[in-house]
Structures
1.
Amino acid sequence: MHQTLRRRHEYQLSASGRGSSARKEHSVTQSHAARSAAPTEHEAPRDTRDRLVEAISAHGPITARRLADMFGLTSAAVRRHLAMLQDEGVIAEHDVPVKRRGRGRPSKAFVLSAQAHETLPGGYDDLAVLALDELAARGGTEAVDHLAERRVADWQREVERRAEAQREAGRDITPAQKLQILADLLTERGFATTVRPLTVPVRTAGPHGQERPRTLMAAQLCHGHCPVHAVAARHPELCEAETRAIARIIGAPVQRLATLAQGAHACTTHVPLTEGRTP
């Protein structure tokens, strides 16, 4: 879906530079241009759907019949591709009343879905970076730190609320379980978070100088996605506030090992949990 939307966005950018004075000429040559770039029955399905999305973006609401005419495809082939795009959540149906005397039967047409519009780049990252830069210029680092803390202020409250609900249901909540509750919460908020348990065997001295094996229990909290990636790259205070929030929730010092904002493949935080002893 993201590849489809990215290609559609690039198409929009290239199309946006055309002047309104050329509309008449564009309408005359539109059919020829569409056919020159048209998908064929033998083209890869993914490429065909990408091109159909471009057309729906530019000309929607648009019917399957009109798309078939534009691209020289059969109506059956176009409908198969449209069904796939609907399943992916890229497009949605839009009823267009037929302009004729009487009630008329609505003709099924297609537009980009709300989900697709939310996924496409919208300039929000640039605006957020600009706002944080302005906040830092006017209020200094204290103002940015305060905003970063407010952003994560409800994490602990929500984790505690969910943990308490499980306790009331008769379940004990260990630090590891609380960490999983946090991971679930952050995934809901767009972080794609997972918990990766770690066990580290160590040896400690016993009462008579004998070594006794112990196992340190820890975990890595990993975010596969960062909803504020562009802003955090400019203002690491956001990452630092997240780390402090995780430490408060777990009740132990944690260590941020890597961040997406610094170019890593994931944001990784080392979290010490309980300590166990092996016989």
2.
Amino acid sequence: MVSTSTRYQIITTNLTRTKALIEKDPVVKRETDYYNATIKNIKTIDEFIKNDRVFKYAMKAYGLEDMAYGKALIKKLLQEGVSNPLSMANKMSNPLYKEFAKAFDFAGKGAAATSAASATTEAVQKYVQQTLEQQEGKDNQGVQLALYFKRKASSVKTTMGILADKALLKFVQTTFNIPEAASRADLDIQVRNLEKVLNVKDLQDPKKVDKLIQRFSAMWDMNNVTSTTMSPVLTLFNQSNEQGMSIDLMMSIAKLRLGGS
């Protein structure tokens, strides 16, 4: 089996090509075409929530696919927006909710919210990235975690930012061989323990991030020798079963893994 480090390098070295394969996949292309043709015509929160295809696409793009059933919660989240420090988005521990509320800022921009880059081009880019990470996770969830960490690291400003994100915490625990039971300790103890092994400021340095990924990859492979066994790590990514990938895409990515064209 290809090691986590090797697979991660293959993906990141050929990232543009891999994303292009995903974009051309019939399932992804169909949903993206519909989203692009529809999103700018949506002017209210109710219209956004009621259009199931658009709503689910947006939720997946911003890492909240597992919460697509919680339409009442998301409606309240969007109604309150992010400008008030006491709004729901600002009080929730998971930063993805605030990111989503900012991306679809109906509270602040009104009908213009769905014309913003965060709701159009950026949402599509994020959807493709999410699909890539999920697809990689089917074969090696360590690669999924590494890709996720690379994408999110620079946005983490505090140790609490790691603790609030289950996938980032799993990455750090694996990297530094911290037992999962440590998460049951008091919050202040968890913060102090993480700060002993990781300076959050290092996450702003791409070279240091890459070194952390190298260390993580080695630790992941050491702890997960049976790659055919599905790990519960999938629950870390706020995702449910995706709509499925076409055989053409799977074959194309398989050829990429083997160095084919």
3.
Amino acid sequence: MLNNQPVIGVATTTGCRKQADGHIRPASFYCQIAERAAEYGTQVCLFDPAQAYWKAEKMEAYFPVSKRAPYGHWSKKEVSLPSVIYENIFVHLNIRGYSDELRRQATLRGIPLFNPVLPGKWRMAEWMRSSGLDKYIPETEKLKSTEQLLDRLRHWDTVYIKPTGGYGGVGVTRVRKLGHNRFAVAWDRSQGSIAQVRKEMDERKLRDWVTTRLRRPHLLQEGINLLTIEQRKVDFRVVLQRNLQGEWKLVGIVPKWAAKDGVVTNVIAGGERVSLLQIQNAAHAEGKEISIQPMQQAAFEIARMMERKKPFIGLVGFDMGIDEKGNPLMIEMNPKPARSLLDSGMRRKAAFLAAEFAIYLNNQK
């Protein structure tokens, strides 16, 4: 602590412009966190986990030069470990283990850290089933064999194959049954490539293709007749965060429009971010209505279920779909939903809630 004030340590490796004098100018998101925290007598610092000296219980971190003006320069100090940690490291770095030691040391020292490690796609499906929330997810199985895939295609006509630990739409593949011994295989993004790939295969070629996927864990999901507008599939990023009382609040709902015949709606894979009003107007032009309330209610139910299992969870984003009957479905859970999808008002709300939840966690110690 500095001056007996609790300190929120934001673990990050990005979002800061270094100045010639050694100061930094952080991204506005971090400044907004500091602004909100200051209202509650709490300081905020930014630190790279690599600059934490755990044995000495010290770290190098950046603080606002002026507590009253966090949008200005921030300077580096060597200080004691923070009261609470907001882990905000890129997903791809976490997959490589960048935050492993940070998490281990925080646990050893009793420092609350959010967000915790959240389940992959298969574990998440198990949580949904065991909590009676499986009505919100498509039929989901582990992909175990080519025979299993062919059997599900006979029953479902369309299936999706997904890597259990993937993100950003990488490797998500749609397989459709076309007719006798003919199948359409499609994906929008593969490892190292962003390009729509569309192939037609016979059963032998499909078997060979699936065999390569069996080398790593994948899921098999039933293809759902999701809402389509202008011949393009639509889903909705629903972002929730917890506040000063630990209660879930809606940050925002962001529609994502797939490209024509798109497999996923991820912007990086050819999807498009649009406003809620835009998509509602486009739906209305086709005689369709988009009801937000059931989708929002489902997201809150799932978030509360996750909170019971992971009490330090403070942020989650769901890719929610609506079928043609208006029923909500959870397509994907995002432990670190991209802020780039949010508008400026949503990002400010997200920053304020991040500060509030950190204070909440510190008060629970």
